[in-house]
Amino acid sequence: MKLLSVNVGRPRPNPWKGLGLTGIDKRPVDGPVAVADPGSKGTGAVGLAGDRVHDVKHHGGSDQAVYAYAREDLDGWEAELGRPLPNGVFGENLTTLGLDVNGALIGERWRVGPDAVLEVSGPRIPCATFQGWLEREGWIKRFTRAARPGAYLRVIEPGEIRAADPVVVVHRPGHEVTVALVFRATTLEPQLLPRLPAADALPEKIKELARRRVNPWGSIT
Q: What is d(CA 218, CA 221) in angstroms, rounded to the nearest whole number?
C-alpha cells in the first residue's frame, strides 16, 4: 500500500457555485509536502501545505484535513466514463494504490511515510462544483449510486509525505462502520443510520444526524 501521488490545488474560477474560486483542480507535486492539523473549519485551511478550500462553510477543518481516493477506483471510473482521469482529478490530496479506501473503518489510522499519522473520519459528499468540474450532467447522482466516495482524514501526527511513501494501517477500531457505509447511510439509505453510532470517531455533524433520525428503539423517525 502506498501513495501514488500527493496533490495540491490550483485556485481557479468556480462558476458552478458562484463562490469565486475553487481548489478542486489538484495536481501531483514533486518532493515532500508538510501535513498538519488545520484546526477549525471556516478559515479555508486544510492539512496539506500550499493547499486550501474556498467554500469554507462546507469544506476544510480538522475533520476534512486530507482527502484520499484510490487509483483503483479512478481506473474503474475511467473505463465507465471513457476518458482519462489523472491523479488528483477528483480533488483528492492523496491518490493511493493497494488500499481499500472505501472499506476503511471510521477511526482507522494510517501511517504515511516515516512520521505522519492520519485517521479516517468520513466520506466525501459530492457537490455542484465536482459535477461541473467533470462536465458530466447527472454526475452527483451517478457518483452517489456507486458509493465509492473516497475518505476524509484527520491529521493525528504531523509530518512530511511524498509520492511513493508507504501507507501502513496502524490501528483498526472494533466496529464495522466503513466509509462506504457512512456514505450510503447519509445519502440514499437512511435505514442504515442506526449502525453509525458504533463509530465514535465520526464527525459530530454525522453523529447528530444519526441521533436526530434514530429513536431509542432503533427505527427511523
A: 9
Cell 487509483, residue located? 71
Q: What letter would DSSP give residue 89?
A: T
Side-chain-facing half-sphere of 119: CA atoms under 13 Å: 19
Closest alpha carbon to 124 in 90, 156, 157: 90
Please provide the average confidence, as pLDDT, over all residues in the chain: 93
Which residues on neighbouring strands pair with residue 67, listed in sequence order?
152
Burial (0-12, 13-18, 19+ Cβ within 10 Å), 207:
middle
Per-residue pLDDT, averaged over 166-182, amounts to: 98
Residue 221's pLDDT is what?
45
Angle, CA 48 vertex, CA 42 and CA 49 arms, to 5°: 95
Q: Determine whether 65 is exposed, middle or buried from the number of CB atoms within 10 Å of its CB (0-12, 13-18, 19+).
A: buried
Confidence (pLDDT) at 59: 86
Distance (Å, whole) CA 173 – CA 160:
25
pTM: 0.93
Q: Is 123 helix (H, G, I), strand (E, B) or coil?
A: strand
